Fold this sequence. Notes:
By secondary structure, the protein is an all-alpha fold. It folds into two domains: 6-33, no CATH class; 54-268, MetI-like (MetI-like fold), CATH 1.10.3720. The chain is 72% helix and 0% strand. The chain is built from 13 helices and no strands.
Amino acid sequence: MNRYTWRTFILEAVMIFVTVLFFFPICVLINMAFKKPGDASEPVEAVTSPTLQNFADAWTQASLGQSLLTSAFVTVSSVAIIVFVSALAAYPLARVTKRWSRWMFFLFMLGLVLPFQLALIPLYTTIRDLGLIGSPLSLVLYYSGLQVPFTVFLYTGFIRAVPLDYEEAAAVDGAGPIKTFLSVIFPLVRPITGTVIVLNILTVWNDFLTPLLYLSGSNQQTVPVALFSFVSQYETQWNLVFAGLIITVAPILIAYFVMQKTVIKGFASGLKG
């Protein structure tokens, strides 16, 4: 048995300090969400008379019900397209050894290097010409293209780690490339699929700039834009902002806790043994 030394004590002290550092913003969030408007000027001071009225006001004034439905539609549709397209694109990129495959992979990787701000105005013009300004479909198209390069990069690396024996056995049984991918390869890379889903959900759900541009003038707003309605030039209703944040972060936390084992497997091992 290892003895308790001063180095162990220092390590534990550092870990406790880091834990407190990470939990401090969460405590402020919860504290502010239950404060009355007159007490919201002191975010660190503990709440003395908590109220649940902030949650009701945030729900009604920001139309969080409609915003949650819009965010859910955009997120689920975008992530489904990203996973389907990226996984199919990564399979030939990982298995074909010809020169064109290598160049196509580098072409996808350009999407990771080039900042999306360079195409902000041309993309907005294209969406406008398609008549999709104010429609959630514009966000689905935008995110589906934006997140594919990163997702292809993850899938390609994991598919390359899959032994060829599985595909050779499927070919002996008469399976074609599509059936081999759907029946053999895709189930084997399930851990990275879970990781990809969670990472893309966080990116799409929390984005603020794109919905602000593409859904301008529409009554369909995503959650970050809806919460921004409590922020004005002269006054910010912080108690409603933090109450709304607690309401809107709940679906993301539930999705993460449901898929946390898959996400950890995806980062730690990659392939299911």
